[in-house]
């Protein structure tokens, strides 16, 4: 299939050494560079001119700082947001261990359910939209949080370095919301769902898009994704809706971020995020009307 075929790098000549062929381009200016001109960046390589321009003086501070392939500012700690997300998930899990079912009932995702026998009906359809996001940070079993956090630690830092902190955070949260929205839209209203799997699958999709953009070998990530999809549809108790929703949202947002034209980069990127958020809201409104009408 076309989406899984690894394209061959386009061979050109180094802009500083016209006699040398190369298939690598600077991640900032996208000019071809040979091995002697390659300077390692957070993702890929930069050319000497971009590195020199990023460290010079006489320009505004924002112009001095090197940029990622998506236009984000290169930060000192390229794992900071990933660490914060790990910490939030761990804190909520500790809260579950302490409070038990009470916290789970307050944060878990379900569309519409009776709280107790003959008790009040509650859920996303009753206006508890916070469950779409709170459930993304909620885990009940140790194996569940361990697997998700391992995926976050493996996939998160390279994406955080490539996209920048704000774009990476947007990608993660929208992927989680996308998984929750699809679960709410197609699942039984009383079916409970929890976990960061939707957001993690969003990182899978984003990693595949980024690797294709950089002309890296996509086979490792595609194999890993295929294995996880097999578990998604064969392991009982897994919400395939959250996985597929997160995967689709993560891939689409990442594509907009790394393929946005340089002159309108921020407009395209944040416009894509806003459009995806509106689509998620629209799906939840439609489902709410179905359940409450």
Q: Could you list some keywords that capture this structure?
A:
293 residues; disordered N terminus; mainly alpha; Rhomboid-like fold; 11 helices; two-stranded antiparallel ribbon; 57% helix; 6 strands
Q: Can you lay out the helices and strands and say which pair or pack?
A:
Layout: E1 12-13, E2 21-22, E3 39-40, E4 45-46, H1 48-55, H2 61-64, H3 80-99, H4 101-107, E5 113-114, E6 121-122, H5 131-134, H6 142-163, H7 165-186, H8 197-213, H9 219-234, H10 240-259, H11 265-292
Antiparallel strand pairs: 1-2, 3-4, 5-6
Helix pairs in contact: 3-6, 6-7, 6-8, 7-8, 7-10, 7-11, 8-10, 10-11
Number of strands: 6
Helix-strand pattern: EEEEHHHHEEHHHHHHH
Number of domains: 2
* Known CATH architecture of the largest domain: Up-down Bundle
* Largest sheet descriptor: 2 strands, antiparallel
Secondary structure category: mainly alpha
Counted by DSSP, the helix tally is 11
Q: Describe the strand arrangement of the main beta sheet, using strand numbers.
A: 1-2
CATH fold naming of the largest domain: Rhomboid-like fold
For this structure, what is the CATH class of the largest domain? Mainly Alpha
Oligomer: single chain
- Report low-confidence residues grouped into runs of 5 or more: 1-9, 55-64
At the fourth CATH level, what is the homologous superfamily of the largest domain? Rhomboid-like
Q: What is the mean pLDDT?
A: 85
Query: Could you give the distance between the termini?
Result: 43 Å
Shape: elongated
Strand content: under 5%
Helix content: 55-70%
Over the alpha carbons, how many angstroms does the gyration radius reach?
Answer: 21 Å
């Amino acid at each position: 299939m076309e989406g899984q075929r690894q394209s061959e790098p386009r061979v050109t000549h180094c802009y500083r050494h016209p006699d040398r062929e190369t298939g690598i381009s600077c991640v900032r200016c996208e000019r071809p560079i040979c091995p002697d001109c390659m300077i390692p960046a957070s993702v890929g390589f930069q050319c000497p001119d971009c590195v020199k321009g990023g460290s010079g003086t006489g320009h505004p501070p924002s112009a001095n700082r090197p940029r990622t392939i998506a236009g984000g500012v290169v930060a000192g700690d390229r794992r900071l947001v990933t660490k914060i997300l790990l910490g939030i998930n761990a804190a909520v899990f500790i809260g579950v261990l302490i409070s038990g079912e009470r916290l789970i009932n307050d944060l878990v995702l379900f569309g519409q359910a009776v709280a107790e026998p003959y008790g009040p009906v509650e859920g996303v359809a009753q206006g508890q939209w916070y469950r779409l996001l709170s459930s993304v940070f909620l885990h009940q079993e140790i194996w569940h949080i361990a697997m998700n956090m391992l995926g976050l630690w493996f996939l998160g830092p390279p994406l955080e370095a490539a996209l920048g902190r704000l774009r990476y955070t947007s990608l993660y949260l929208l992927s989680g919301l996308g998984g929750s929205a699809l679960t709410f839209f197609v699942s039984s209203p009383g079916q409970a769902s929890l976990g960061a799997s939707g957001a993690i699958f969003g990182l899978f999709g984003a990693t595949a898009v980024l690797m294709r953009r950089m002309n890296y070998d996509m086979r490792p990530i595609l194999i890993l994704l295929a294995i996880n999809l097999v578990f998604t549809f064969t392991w009982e108790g897994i919400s395939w809706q959250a996985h597929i929703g997160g995967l689709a949202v993560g891939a689409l947002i990442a594509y907009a971020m790394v393929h946005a034209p340089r002159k309108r980069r921020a407009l395209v990127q944040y416009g894509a995020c806003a459009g995806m958020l509106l689509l998620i809201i629209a799906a939840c409104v439609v489902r709410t009307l179905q359940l409450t009408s």
